[in-house]
Amino acid sequence: xTTATLSPNQLTMTGDDWLSSQDKKAIARALATRKxxxxxxxxxxxxxxxxxxxxxxxCNECDDGSGVRSADDGRVLLVEQMMEYANWLDSVYNK
Length: 95
Fold this sequence. Notes:
95 residues, mainly alpha, two-stranded antiparallel ribbon, 2 helices, 65% helix
């Protein structure tokens, strides 16, 4: 799809027909870099979730009040949010 829009001072041409091979390669590299970074981020988020879960279990075993007290504990919410984002990254970038 190609479009040309005329503004008072500039003609803008967009679409695949107007991209040079160098532009296409740059876009492909950027997309590949983003995909790799998203995959790395998802893995590190999962590692952080595992570490935080281990910490919460250790705190609960101490039975000194440092354990998780309720579902709205910040640690529980953080785990949920990190898992949600890691799963989203996997679903979008690791197809």
